[in-house]
Amino acid sequence: MAKIPSVKKTILENGLTVVSEFLPKVRSVAMGITVGTGSSSEEEKNLGITHFIEHMCFKGTEKRSAFQIAKELDEIGGRINAFTSKDMTMFFAVVLDRHLNIAVDVLSDLFLSSKFDFKEMEMERGVILEEINMYEDTPDELIHDFFAETILKGHPSAWPTLGTPQTVKNLKRIDLLEYKAAHYVPDNIIVSFAGNIWHYTAVSLVKKYLGGLKGKKHHLTHLHPKMESQLKLKRKKIDQVHLCLGGRAVSQMDPDRYAFTVLDNILGGSMSSRLFQEVREKRGLAYSIFSSVMPFRDFGIYYIYAGASKANYRKVLDLIMIELSSIKKIGVTAEELKRAKEHLKGTLVLGLESTSARMSFIARSEHFYGKTITIDEIFKKIDEVTQDDILRLAERYFSDKCLTLTMIGDMPRLPKLELAL
């Protein structure tokens, strides 16, 4: 007998997509409304507008105040929140299955009918400016935006999700309303559910609350960033030097994305990775060091982060370059490959134990691929990765032609560095 898929999809007449995963053994349901717009959809003049809209949606609707939005979810033991990333905005709620109608009502209300009250907007502008200030005072987070801004210079994905103090100060109510009207349209929206809910129930609820939404998506031109080797320093009076070193990588659509994820895991994606062992465990040169890959729809970047003292950061950089060169020239062992594969598979499954995680997973899968990539399919792709694949990708992407280094620290000038692989 054929296995009945647990994830189902329906596209409503207005173009809105509904996806749901039925998990009958849980007592909760997670719901998310995902809009295919993030900071990479913005222009220089309105940086931070997507994030500002997300905040304002919680500040009161025609029938609920900001307090009532919070109160209605609190009194049923639920959670409601939202986030903005480079490529999407998601509003979500998690509740007991018997309270789902309330969650859908509240979430749909704030999504569709937020008032964008002038006084509330001025107050929230101050909140966002403080959020930017807080971020500026957190160098181990700021360095990642500084790296993206440098390596992706001139591309929309280079811009900070929060915007800049100047752009946030300049945004007007009409700007937010016009941007929301242009991007919060049915064929740019995915409503996802995971938990104890049948698909026909999910579809019925979405039709009831969001079926009247109209509008057509404004299609953006996707640009490929020009990545060149760069060195940049941001001076701050802090004890450590925070650095990000990296370059071009695979995109979300690249068949090699699974192999690159395995490569990243071996390099610095776990406690048994090369960089963690060489830099922290064997030499004690840094507390935090890891590698990561950021695959966007049309391109990707990878980077290695480390925080070290002014006395040690050069040694850390040397060790990073040695490991990049070693993988590029020699490759990885069969033992490393096996360990990385099992670590990735275990991390994936453990990360999908909650209904909220599964809801987010199917939404992202639908957003990028137009379908749900199953865990079994991902496992198969991971298992197919070979040592030759790792060597091939290292030879292609660990190149000094677009190797970029950014640093934040209390240094008078950028040190002379030789970044050659």
Automatic annotation (TrEMBL):
Please give the biological process terms from Gene Ontology that the record holds. proteolysis
Q: Where does the Peptidase M16 C-terminal domain start and stop, copy by copy?
A: 172-343
Q: Which PROSITE patterns match?
A: INSULINASE (PS00143)
User: The Peptidase M16 N-terminal domain covers which part of the protein?
Assistant: 18-164
Please give the superkingdom of this protein's source: Bacteria
- GO MF entries: metal ion binding; metalloendopeptidase activity
Family membership, please give it: Belongs to the peptidase M16 family.
What protein name is recorded for this chain?
Peptidase M16
